[in-house]
Amino acid sequence: MPERDLDIVKRMYDCFNEKDIEGILAVLDREVAWANGMEGGHVHGHEAVRDYWTRQWALVSPRVQPVAFQCRDDGAIVVEVVQSLFDLEGRPLDGQVQGLKNKTVRHIFRMDKGAVTHFDIQSDGSGGSPRGG
């Protein structure tokens, strides 16, 4: 996988965990299709991504820990991620909140010229096909 793209994806996880929306938006294509992990489907473009995270972070404080990276033959970067949810005071949450829960998922990034153009979430129970949420 292109080292530059891998570095961008790794930095995005740091930005997400720090709730640095601007840091992430800086590497997203203006028309990005971003998986909506709360309601399903995708949100499109910077403002929709900003609104999505603002809503999510008003409910929970998620942490994502990448544990493995791979590049598929089609050029997509696949990241195995441990997703953990915390309440707004930092206490661990059990169960599900707005479609989000503690679990291991795969994040699938498609990039063009150093910018993320498409992001999907694939759960273990999804039958192997990427989905939007």
TrEMBL record:
Superkingdom, natural source: Bacteria
Q: Which residues belong to any copy of the SnoaL-like domain?
A: 9-118
Q: Which InterPro entries match?
A: NTF2-like_dom_sf, SnoaL-like
- Protein name as annotated: Nuclear transport factor 2 family protein
State the species of origin: Castellaniella ginsengisoli
